[in-house]
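Holo prediction — guanosine-5'-monophosphate.
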Amino acid sequence: MSENISRLREILAFPKQVTIITHRNPDGDALGSSLGLAAFLRKSGHSVDVVAPSEYPEFFNYMHGIEKCIIFDTDPQAARKAVDRAEVIFCLDFNGLDRIDKLGENVQFSKAKKILIDHHLDPEPFTDIEFSDTQASSTSELVFKLIEDLGELSKIDPDLGACILSGIITDTGSFRYGTRVETYRIAGYLKSVGVDDHFVQDKIHNSLNEKKLRLLGHCLYNRMEVIKEYGVGIMYLNKKDYTDFDIQRGDTEGIVNYMLMVPEIVVAAFITEQPTIVKISLRSKGDISVQEIATKYFNGGGHKNASGGGVYASLNDIIDKLKKVIPLHVPKIQ
Ligand code: 5GP
Ligand code: MN
């Protein structure tokens, strides 16, 4: 047994007040890993709060326990209280305190034992125990392995398993990228204990409403530029688009990936003009690292093939900057 697992086992030997915290704009993996771990810890006799800095997309409502999730943006007091009273804090699916907004301070100054479970590159050293594996498809995969390494697989029931499978499905784009043998083994195990994978896939993929479908059409038809020379697709949404299409948090999730459906496009950028910041989402195929681009120029980070960032500048400045740095990172197509 690894040293980390022994230390964790010791920490969890008696019932504890636990807070699980995940990153802002929580996605399927952030929620799935957090809720899966929460269900496991509750079954083991601990009191558990789950906190997210900002709201999650509504279609994740099917996940067991999500209704108990505390959102900092809507209830900052409850969120701070949950962090402050914790004896143990699990930080899931993020690698730096800037990913949890103002709660970063509460976590930083908390006396709780802090445990990281994450698969992003270069985790910052703000926790006591790190379960960091950048080869893992998802943080949910790591939560499964943790439960397995603790010898507690029997605690994984269909509801808990559906949370973990949700994280794996969303972070791998339904097993299209980032997978390894473990990923399939875990998915197979989850199905074998009764997780309804068809239900989960349906909830995740058939969740668009008419507004989002039309927004997707607008992005593809009016807001996409392809730089053929480098195989780069750039898409943007300005503030007027946000008003015209009544875009809410989560409505733009996944749009960036459509550009990668074109074989020649190897890098996709989706740039959104938000109230105070311009956000960029980057995706790439193969060996091109958008993590480098996000870190170097856009105050962000993430994974080699999926990264993001945010900059206080104008939409046009960000688009121009991206166009300038493309030749430095993306090989020219012959
Ligand atoms: P998305 O493009 O879906 O927002 O994010 C893709 C990946 O990039 C995620 O795994 C996320 O962790 C990372 N990411 C997105 N935005 C930021 C950011 O502002 N800072 C950092 N460090 N990583 C980000
Ligand atoms: Mn993840």
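READOUT: The CA atoms of residues 13 and 44 lie 10 Å apart.
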